[in-house]
Write a structure and sequence with these properties.
This protein is α+β, with helices and mostly antiparallel strands and about 150 residues long. It is about 25% helix and about 30% strand. The longest helix has 15 residues.
Amino acid sequence: MPTENELAARARLTHEVEVTPAFYDIDVMEVVYHGHYVKYLELARSALLAQYDYDYPRMRDSGYAWPVVDMRLKYVRSATFGQKLKVSATITEWENRLRIDYVMRDAATGHKVNVAHTIQVAVNIATREMCFVCPPVLHDRLGVSA
């Protein structure tokens, strides 16, 4: 069971965005095409990292690329055109990799639409070598210890 400090840190490392599927996100079955959920996760991840002033341009400027090396999505129910969705992104690992967990819910009912996670690793841009420990700049930006 997480400690109070761990729960407080997790709450601080969370950000939520609202998205509304557009007509071009809908497939022939009149629901959001499964591949578009990845786009919604990216919007939440980008907003989360931006609140720490470590968005993708800042990552590049710090000398690191952070490619997504693993992504898992579990679809619970379909979303539809115009349905408002809340996407919550939480940083849950930052020592050796950056793991972000997501929960997507219907904004009106709170019903879960999907859960997901992404894993990113630091790659030194100059050498193109993967780092086996996250660089100190990530810890500094997030305000966490290694």
